[in-house]
Every structure is written in C-alpha cells, then in structure tokens.
Amino acid sequence: MKPALLARWLLCLLLLAPWHPLLAAPPGAATAPPLRDYVGDRWTSRQGLPHNSLRDMAQTPEGHLWFATWEGLVRYNGVEFEVYGRGTEPSLPDNGVGSLYVDAQGALWLSDSRGNLGRRTADGQWRFWNSGDDWPQALIHAMTMDRQGRMWLLFEGHGLGCLHPDGRFEYFGSSDDVPLRQSFPKMAVDDKDRIWIGGLKGLIYRDAAGSFHRAPAAFGLPPGLAWPYRAPDGTIWIVAGESLYRIRGDAAERLRQLPGHGHFTAMLQDRRGDLWLGSENRGLLRIGPHGVEYPPAGEMNPPGRIVSLLEDAEGSIWAGANGGLFRLRETLFGRYTRRDGLSGDYVRALLEDRHGRLWVGGANGLDRIDGDGQVRPVALQPGQVPPSVLSLAETGEGQLWVGSYADGVFQLRDGQPVRRYGPAEGLPAGHIRAIVPADGGGVWAGTQRGPVLIESGQVRTPRIDGLPQALVTALANIDGALWIGSVEGASVLRDGQVRRVPLETLSGARSVFGFQRIGNDVWIATDRGLYRERAGTLARVGLEQGLPVDTVFQIVADRIGNGWISSNRGVLRARMADLDAVADGRLARLPVERYDETDGMSSAQGNGSSAPSMILRGDGTVWLVTAAGVSLVDPQRWRSFSSRVPPPAEIENVTLDGKPFAWRQRAPHHPLPGGSRISVSYAGLSYLLPERIRYRTWLEGLDAGWVERGRQRSVDFVGLPPGDYALHVAAAHPEGAWSEREAVWKFSVAPLWWQRASVRIGGLALLTLALAGLFRYRLIRYRTRNRRLARLVQQRTEQLQAQTDQLLQADRDKTELLAQLRRQAETFERQAREDALTALPNRRHFDEVLLREFARARRGDRPLCLMILDIDHFKTINDGHSHAVGDKVLREVGQLLATICRASDFAARVGGEEFTMVLPDTGIDEALSVAARLRERFASQRDWGGVAGLAVTFSGGMVQLEPTDNAPAEMLRRADEALYDAKTSGRDRICTQ
C-alpha cells in the first residue's frame, strides 16, 4: 500500500474509532453508564411551561434552573414553574426572552426580542438596560462575558455590542467580507480574548485588537454553518458541518466526523468530559467511553431542533428544544428489555452460571447474556413456539435445567437442549415454577402436585407423609435440607422427615415465593411480608413493622450490608442490620426505601411464583425480573447515590393573610402586622427526585428546635406573639444528611393594640379597681345569702330526716319481698326440673342432659351409654300394699340410684315406676358393671316400703351410642326395645342392644 494511502486509512480509523483518546474523561472522573441506563423526562405547556420552544437555559448558584421562552422567563425548582413576564412583578420589558448567562457573581443576565438586557442579582434585585439610538432594537440571541467583565451581545441580523462594567455601551458593525449579520446564536470568548461567533456562512471571530475575521482557511472548515462552544475547561470547540474540531493555539484539529446527522445546533461537555451534541432534526447523541450513543427513541430523545443543552449541578443533562424541555438523568437501576435483544419483556427467572453468563427466562422463551453484553436467544424447541420459562437451575455438572409453564422440564448441556421431561416421563402436567439441584444428583422440580425428583433420567414422586401436594412456588436446597414453598405455606424436608414451618402463627402467611439463606438464617418471602427462621425460632417483618407492601417475592443481601427485596410495587431496600433488629424486637419500625420506574427500573412490577426471581451476581450486582424486562442495581453505585450532596433549601415565596408578600425587600426591623397569617413556601433545589425530598423547619423565637415536616413544602404561622423571629429551613434526600446551607428569613411581628405596654398597664389598673369593687359587692352579698342559706338548710334537714326514715322502712319491706320472691323462684325452678316424689331430675331435665351428652360424645368421638329401668310388678305393690307403700318404694329407689351413681353419671325418674341412667364416657362393659352393682343393692335391701319381707327387683335396657344414631331419640328407642326384651325374658335382668 502506498504511504499516502496508508496515512489516509490510519486517519480514517482514528476519526471513526468509538472514542478518541483526546476526548477521554478527566483523570479521576467516573465513567458514565450507557445511555440505555438513563431515564428521560419531558415537560411541555401541559406541565406548566408557558411555551414549548426553549431558546436557552441556565442554573444560578443557589440551584434554580432558568429557561428562556417566547412567553417569558421561567424559573424551576424541581416541582413547579414560575413565569416572569410583562404582567408579573417584577415586570420584564418583553416576553420574548432570547438568551441567558450567569456571571461570576451568580447574577442572571437575560436578553429579549426587542434588544433589552436585564440582570437579576442573587438577592432578587433586577436592573434593565433598554435599547436606545445606538443600541439596536433587535433580538439579542447570544451573549457572553470576557475576563474584564465586559458583556458581549450578538444582535440578530445586526452586529456585535459590548456593555462595559461602567455601563458604557459600544456597537460594532462589520465589513462586507465578514457576514456578521448572518450570525448563528452561538458565541464564545477564549483565553486570548478572541470572540468566536457562529455564522450561517462560516465561523467568524473578533481578535483582541477589535478586528473581525473569517475563520482561517487552514482550519479546513467546510462551507456553511459553523459555530463555537467553550467547554468548562476553557477549550474552544467548533462544530462545522458533520465534523467536530478543537482549537489549539491558532490551529483547529478535526477530532470526529459524524456523517448522517445533518446540522448540529447545540453542544455540551459534561463533568466527565463526555460530549453531547444536539441536532436540527436527528435528536441527541453522546460521545464518550461507550462510543457514539443515542438515547432510545421516544420520550428520551427530543424531537425537532435542540436549541440548548445544560448540565445541572447534579449531573443531569437538560435539552431545550422547539418541542419542549427534556432531561436525561443517570439512574440507580439499569435494565435489559426487548430493545436490548431479549425475546420478550415479561421475564420470570434469572440465573448466572459458573462461566458468568446470565440466563434469562420469560414468557417468550430463554435468552443468554454473554460477557460481551450481547443477548442471544436459546431455542429449547427448535422450529416450535418457544415455551414460557418459569424456573432455572444449574447442577454441579454444569447442566442447565429449565422449568416451563406447560411444556415440562428441559435439560441442557453446553447450552444445548438434550432432553425434555413431560407427562410421558411421569412428570405431573402443569407449571414448573421452581427447580433446585438435589444433593444426591439430579434436581427437585416444583409441580402443581408437590415436589418431584428428576434423577438418572427418571421422574420420581416421593411418598413421604406431610410432603406438600399443592402447587409449589419456591424451592431451596439449604444445608442438605429441601425448603418447599407452596400456596399452603412452607415445609422443610430433611432425612426423609417433613417439618412444617408455622407461618400461620405470625399473621397467617399462606403463599411462599422465595427462600434465601443469609448468614445462618433463612429468610422467607411470602404474601404477608418476610419471615426469618433462626435456630428454629420464627420472626416476622411485615406491614405492621414498616414494610410498605404485604407481598414480597425475594430478598437478596448485597456485600455492603443492604437487603434488596422485590415486590409488585417496586424494589425495597433496607439495611440487614435493621431487618434483624426488627425481627429481634429491638427496633419497632423498619427504615426502608422503595424504588420504581423513576429510579430507572424497567417496571416497578416484579414477578414472583417463579425462580430465581432475584439474584446476587458474582460482580456484586443485584438483578431481578419484572413485567417489563430485567432490572439491575450496583450497590456500590447506590452508595454514591446515597452520599450525594444534600439539596440546598430555598424559601420560594411568602404570603401574608393570603396575599403575596415581598419578603426579600422587607427589612427585619420593619415588623409584620400582629395577628397575621404567615404562609411560607420552600423547596429543596434538587431535580433528581424532588418529590422525595424531606424538610424540616425551625422558627427561632418560638420552636425549641427543629420540627420535621416530611415532604411538606410549606408552613403556616397564625397569630404569632410580638417579637423577633428567624425561620430556618433545611432539606435532605431520603436517608441523606441535612443540607448545611439553610434557608433563613428573619422577621419581626408588631404587637396588636391590646398587646402594647401602655395599653396593658392602663388595662391592668382598671382591672384592679374593678376587681376590688366586685370583691366588696360579692362579700356583702355572700353574707346575706349565707344567713338565708342557714335557715333553709335547717328546714331541709328536718324534712330529709323524715324522708330518710320512710325510705329505710320501705327498703326493709322491699328486701323482705325480694327474699320471698327469690325463694318462690327457686322452688318453681326446682319443681320444673325435679321429680317431687323422688327428688331425682324429671323427664324434662333428663331430655336436656341426654341431648347435651349426645352432642358432646359425637363431637369428641367419646363413648356414651343409656339405661332405662322399670320396677318389676309395681302395680302389684300398689294394689296389694297401698299407693302410700308404692310411693315409699319409689322414693327408696330414687335414693338408691342417687347413691350408686358416679360423679359423671345422671339418674332421673321419667314417669311412673320408670327410671333412666345416662353414663357419659362409659363403654358398654363398664355400664353393665354399674347396672350389676345396682341389682346387687336392690337384692341386698329388705323390707322395701316398710313392709316386712317385701323384695323389689327391676328390669333394665342398656344401649351404647352407635355411629348410626342420628339423634338421642334413636338411643331411647333402642333402650326401650332392650327393656322390653328384659321384661319378656322373665324380668329382674338387664338386656342390651
């Protein structure tokens, strides 16, 4: 190859390389994440902007952002836009704002479409310079200040103006060969006091001597639009055509060519040294360590012309376009979605294999992310619809196992499917939501009918008592034990024995989504929060302890002490030490942060009932599955996020009794009217997540110390006492430190007329005289009423004594009457439930007892016996010896039954000569023994009823409660039949049935 051709090729390779060494980040600057890990935000007139075309942007030292629009100057505090225009206070000369500039003193300069210039100082004071005879009445579309403090103004269609520090104005035209009138709204001053001016017909500059020139031909700029940009490090960059140049001394170096982008209209070098370029109609791009990057299409890439770019104090990139305001911000979470090559966005399982490759399973099949970051699909069923993947596992031999929604289990070797297990191989049909390696080889798979073991090519369903038979949603192999989570709770299989984890004893969790060993503990994610099992003791951290959601899917501990918890409502982060303290009862409420799409997650909806749903990778990053791709977080990156500088607090406005109050212009020694309602609005000037900023206030002169306000952005004071006050406001990020730079407003409150010292002294004297007169009047009146009262007391005492005697007598009569009524009630109650002749319970009482004991025996599966006995030949006793003797025999039978009964037995007379015995908790053999003793007592007693030689026997029917007895009447019927058998068999005996 010829040397000239070789040199040309080397130059092309240098210019087209992903990143030119001369554009490297400054030493010590951290590398920015790729643009796909940024989040884009957009504001238009729907969100409060007065106009959708933003010509320029700036940030003042206290933190406010300022935007130039055709409908006024806009100030933004992260929450709301405040518009300044001709109809506001203060009033601007014109609504069409052209450009903005912040000088070294922190003052904001602005220009407008009529050539007017304004300056707002840090304390809110305004000054305006109006166009005059020598000052063109045209749009000032660019301005910059040199090292001498001279403000240079570029008038559209005219020339260049200079406002000196002493207020003197100079105007400079240009010769015909320098097309200054066709300037482009970009201007920069270099360290040699050269003023570089963008032009539609090429680059122009004014040297330190005051002469205007075209850019030297030696620069090699293409014809047409060219314009300058001064970077924060003082470097002058030139954008011309599709090329990017840098000024070095008196020469220009072309560092990069970007074909196909059309005209570039804005440029920015951020704090890392990366370059951002905005174009006429091709959006935004960044040149950095990742090469040339473009934000994803959509809200993140501004459409139309990008007029201005700004990096704020927190590192976010703002783009002002003719279609609104855009912001790209670095987020805590990164993400992989379909746009990065995943087969689908609905992801269910993640696994990092021994080679560091990431396997991703979802509704659209299986993918593999290799070390180069490339996503490659894996065909589990070549030529067929990819199965929906629910679970992943890797065995010790390096084989990958994949569980699916309805296609069984796939076994992969070297990344290629080698076998599938389904119903034909004995695998229960349905979902496989969890797979873990088994200690003896093979894997455990969770099915809809419990866990099964796949080993040596065989599917085996263990027959172990207590093993869950419902849908398995989580599995884990921990210390040789298989932890099983299902829709019915959690169990542990160890050495062939199943132990149930009693989750229901602590808030009643049922569905288990994940197990994680952390230290010596096992953490369980459920539909009722987190459970921790430590040495056999269970503890819970749930909604009541500060967890913001009930259902959590998995917990992963990172390497710096954080616990990351996935859920349907974002990722939660808490310190593991705090989780343990809450579980131990040493901490009442868990400090926790929640992250969602605003933090860069692809979706706040995590996925559960699949596994692994969240993992800690070898590089220390945490990855989780969501309904819109994979999200990941680097805990080290979180550490830098959490330690970011606190937002400066700023008092925005004050109202007095509902009306705006110029609090900045009010001197502290000019007091506010007493009794007023003072409302103060404030803001923490951070634009990353302003809705999460915490606030506190301290009204010095009233409060004893700081008062936490949470996320409240205003405070009201009503009827403050007269005196001097100082309101302090501080802001902080969640879990961050409070801002050292407080917002302070000092004011005083004047006393009301009745609070003045002279009024109070006079009022006190009048009050003293009035009290003295009132006291004397009340004393005289008191003595008169006291004498009258003494007479009345004596009369009333005599009357009350007589009434007391009457009431005492009435009370004695009432007590005696109540005693009689009580005795009668007791008699009636006893008569209602007791047989009057034998003093045994009667038939009504017997029915109640039998019903109760029948139900008790049925409920407790206890034995119950019933005996009905009848006095043999009782009619003969009545007819042969008189009814009086018969009654006496019945009483003696009742006494005999009462003495023979055990404490739990129950005897009753149910009619005539018929008696019953209920024997609870007694089998038939024991009941027959009781009946035998009763017959012996009958036989041993002589002279029944007082009649010499009179013997009495009885016949009995005995039954035991049977399963076929549906009611007490069934037992009575069978007992009657047994009694009939006893009578017909010769009496004086007991029959059973």
TrEMBL record:
Protein EC: 2.7.7.65
SUPFAM superfamilies in alphabetical order: Calcium-dependent phosphotriesterase, Nucleotide cyclase
Record domain GGDEF: where: 862-993
Keywords: Membrane, Signal, Transmembrane, Transmembrane helix
Signal sequence extent: 1-24
Segments traversing the membrane: 761-779
The protein's enzyme class: transferase
GO MF annotations in UniProt: diguanylate cyclase activity
One of the record's GO cellular component terms: plasma membrane
NCBIfam families to which the protein is assigned, alphabetical: GGDEF
Name of this chain's protein: diguanylate cyclase
Organism: Pseudoxanthomonas wuyuanensis
